[in-house]
Amino acid sequence: MLKDVIFVVALSISIIIFYSQIKSQSMNMKKEIFQPLSYESADKKADSVLALMTQDEKIAMVEGDRSFFIRSIPRLNLPEVYMTDATQGVHLREKFSGIDLTKYQLEKSTAFPCPISLAATWNLELSYQYAEAVGEECRAGSIGILLGPGVNGYRISQCGRNFEYFGEDPFLRARMVGEYVKGVQSTGTIATLKHFVANNTDYYRRKSNSIIDERTLHEIYLPPFKAGIDAGAQAVMTAYNLVNGEWCGQSEYVINEILRTQLGFRGLVITDWWSVYDGEKLVKSGQDLEMPLAVALKDVQKLLGEGKIKIKDINRMAKSILRTCFIMKFDDRKKIAFDNTMFENHELVALQTAREGIILLKNEKNILPLQDDKKKILVTGDYVEKNVMGGGSAFVKGYNIRLMLDELKKEFGNRITYMKNPNPDQIQSADVVLCNIGTEDSEGWDRPFELPENQEKKVEECVKNNPNTVVIVTTGSGVRMTGWSDKARAILYAWYGGQIGNKALVEIIAGKTNPSGKLPITIEKEFKDSPGYRYLPEGETLYHGWNEKQEKAHPVYDVRYSEGIFVGYRWYEKKNIETLYPFGHGLSYTTFEYSDISISNDKFQENGVVKVSFTVRNVGMKTGLETAQLYIQDIESAVPRPIKELKGFKKVNLDPGQSKIVVIELNKKDFSFWNPETKDWFFEKGTFVIHIGSSSKDIRLEKQIEL
Length: 707
Hints:
Layout: H1 2-29, H2 39-50, H3 55-61, E1 69-70, E2 81-84, E3 95-96, E4 99-100, H4 115-121, H5 124-140, E5 145-146, H6 170-185, E6 190-196, E7 208-211, H7 214-221, H8 223-230, E8 235-238, E9 242-243, E10 246-247, H9 252-262, E11 268-270, H10 279-285, H11 300-305, H12 311-327, H13 340-357, E12 359-363, E13 377-381, H14 404-412, E14 416-418, H15 424-428, E15 432-438, H16 453-465, E16 469-474, E17 490-493, H17 501-510, H18 548-553, E18 557-560, H19 569-575, E19 592-600, H20 604-607, E20 609-618, E21 624-634, E22 645-654, E23 659-667, E24 673-675, E25 680-682, E26 687-693, E27 699-706
Parallel strand pairs: 2-5, 5-6, 6-8, 7-9, 7-18, 8-11, 13-14, 13-15, 15-16, 16-17
Antiparallel strand pairs: 1-2, 3-4, 9-10, 12-17, 19-20, 20-23, 21-22, 21-26, 24-25, 26-27
Helix pairs in contact: 1-13, 2-12, 3-12, 4-13, 5-6, 5-13, 6-8, 9-10, 13-17, 14-17
């Protein structure tokens, strides 16, 4: 009982300390939220400057300079604009294509937990703080454009860039991305939504052709882009892949029709690096800036001379760049002061993200947190003495790296024994085994759903020889756990925790932090169960490593989104396929009870709002955070619809015995589906069921309403 009281006090204090430290440091630094110039004022300013530019200057502006720059025009007081990757922190490069970049950036940058870990927090305030910290490091390094957030959907578990994104559900992604954009741009740094659109594999990514219908785009893959646009994102990066037969970066359908017309985006559109091929198509598509240099646009003067494009087209592109730069006041941008206090603040945000993003998938016999009777703790696995970050453009080196073994020794002292390759006798003699296995995911290639053979063998040896095995999974996506998950005593999904994630991991193992992460994905039993598993061309297999030459030689291949809107938990519920761990799942060291659901829809005809309220109570012995989830089911519809769809969530902190009334408001769009004929959302009256639960599968409360 005394330990439980200490736990409650300690956890409550840690949460209070985190938010008070953030608030205190913010006050000490006197942060000012950046106020952009209005679109109308920036538009007029862009017109006046454009009139002073020569044709050569306009053409030079729409072509990337030195790989990561928008070209300067000193005589018109237009400074160069530096851009860098990516979502999980500032990617520092010493050189790129032979260009020295060290003078344009900081000496170090904070490595945050990967974005899918951020999504696992289901914490909108943390998403803002995380992004604000990244934006501050951009400002301090004179970076004008952050090439993130990555907002593509999790369609298949094998995609190498899943760690860069925010999971499978469009509603969760949209809410988290909206706050991320606000956080970055509050610092005066441009947030770039990428990769537009339907970019869900890195298998020969420049040659994949996404065959996808408009309803699927709008209901599943466009919501986070729309949310980012509505939050004020000033840039969108087009994707490497083709959509319905045309490369995104030069597709009039993708850019002018979907992005600019249907989503209403008025900002800067840039290509991904070396992703476009036809200058005439590019200019006419609605694209603004080719990166990293002119390839498709190398013959733009010839195209003008032949009348295939008009100077007004180049004017439009240059004006879009100018207007965006003026909105963000880049012509009068001051470098902000940056000291160790701010780095400390950012590391606090990274730590809290890791604390709330780690997911307790399983905890039989309450083996976690580890108790004092576990005297002999054997630690093994590839990621005990090695800290893994997602690879490619999103990689962030970080500083003050915390290794799992060091953090365990700080907490448990001589109770820890580390063995890289323990034998069966050594495994059997331990009171508990901590086995850290996983994958090393990267941009540029997809990786198997199955663990590497040596990793699978390691974890199977542990669970076979010691029933008290706790498996820690270090990865950026779902992995196959079917061969051993039922034998493991507990499973912690740790993701890529950034530079300080192992501190949070050990806090959870020791019980100093109560786990509260919830899966932003569904983890299937076998990859063949998933909706997109046949995406590889017939007869081909996955590769590992950068394959630029092979990619260039590879023919375009089709990726058919034949599942339509049925992605993730929508697919598994429709097909009645049993999963290993459902979307939204995540355990706690305490227990939460749901009750007293009520729905008010008396104002629905007047303002389209439905108000749902219910009570969540902590009936356990420990303070904890719970994410209550709201799903909507349409009982009868003119079109196929999922059994249920996430349309609301709220994370609450509760002490033992404490209860809170949770209120979630729904609007008409939450009950609607996309109508390709009208190019708009369509509400169909009828009977709906509101489901409230702790995961997509663990539904605690239900209530029908007529709308």
